[in-house]
Give the backbone structure.
Amino acid sequence: MKILKRLITGLVVVAVLLAAGLFLALKFIDLNQYKDKIQEVARQQTGRDLTISGDIGVSYFPWVGLSLGELSMANTESFGSDDFVRMGGADVKIKLLPLLKKAVEVKTVTLNGLHIDLQRAADGTTNWQDLITGTESAESPAEPEATPAEESSVEAGSALSALAVSGIEITDASIRWTDAQAGTDATLNNFNLTTGAISPGEPFDFNTDFSVLSNSSGIGAKLNGEGEVTFDLEQQRYTVNLFRLNADAEGDALPNGSAAVELGANVVADLTGGTVDVEALTVTALGIALNGEIAVTGLNGEPAVSASLESDAFNPQQVLAELGVAAIETSDESVLQTGRISAVLQASATRAELSAIRIAIDDTTLAGSASLPDLSAAVPPLRFELAVDAIDIDRYLPEVAADTADAPQSESTAGATTTADQPLDLPLELIRQLDVEGVFRIEDIKAANIRAKAISLPVVAKDGVVRANGIAASLYEGSVKADLGLDARGDAPAFEAGYQLDSVQAALLLADLLQDDPPVSGQANVQMNVKTSGETVSGLTAALAGD
């Protein structure tokens, strides 16, 4: 805060001195006569060519100010022939007499045709570092801290009685970034910005439009935005109300080749407290409208983010179409028509957690929580607890013709079957890095006309071993228990499976499975324990052992 106040004080002092000097001299001096001298000094100081093509204009009363026509500064030779900076024109004027009362009144600031070319070479050097090298010389002596009394005196003596800017107008600006080291690029083009009158504590409107393009990413977009800004320099508090941003993007990297995004929010940034609050947030994309709030804390120390998001009802089939995915063929035409999602996010630099997860598709709801407790790991550990209330999978499968099951296999289909010697191609390196612990539950499920209830699927992955021990379900007045395991620590993966079926009523199961009168009845009890290892189907078959 002291730095800002001293900067403003310096601005006022410089402006007053300039005004006094200009008032006496500028009427009789034409700065255009000194273009060659200015260009020569710039060349000596920077080693670059500065070209002043336009006129230099100066006003002295009642507005003291400077206007510049077209000018440009070259890149260094190693970064090509394009200009480092090019400007079409600029105009800045400060009213003279209010400065005597420590009031700053600025006429509309205009800037036209500013173009900046930023580059990083393959060796990591940039096309601007030579301009700042001179500022990185020997450190200046540390400035002694002001005592509370001195600080109060400085603040009292430097306070402005008023600050007012008639507005800002920026037209046709652009910034190009090229990174030869990373092989990336990005360009901001046709940037325009206009604001209303600016004064601390008073709201002012702004409007902007621009386009962005990245050839390396294959994405381009046109954006426009508006809002109402209020700022308080003393309290370091900045507010943007009724903010709206629309983006229309195109590119091969986007699903379906294009995407439209609409964003709205009210934003309050308290830099003294290190917080940013985003309220009345709305995001619309891919046919989904999200609403929520975001709070950022700890910007002065350890940043943390908390957010709650909830969608309006959306059509899942429409979302698939927006993603360029063909509509899913289902036996029930009424499914995949309604969806809703919601969740609460808590995140910091070290961990992230999603709680109150709720994903509803038609009559089915997935709920629970998931977390990444250590974001510093190469593959972050995962913890989860998720549950589905009820789902009829048969409704989401395509309708099967009555004679399909009995149809003979064609030669083309038979030739497409996987050979026994084909490698399994499991991602063993990834499996060895997994650290997963969680449980997935389904209260009621129907698949292939078979029903099961109270399904529990616990999963633990650690040090190259993945286990699903304690799988359980209720099935036709009986129960199913199972243990599954994958050991990826060796050169070839090893598998084990244990399965126990107790007191299942065969008649009830077969009636649902066959959709006909059951051919047999009775109580089924089955037990199986097998182990195997190998990298191919034939290898797994040869190594199979167990009961």
About this structure: The longest strand covers residues 219-232. The radius of gyration is 35 Å. Confidence is low (pLDDT under 50) at residues 135-140, 147-158, 412-416.
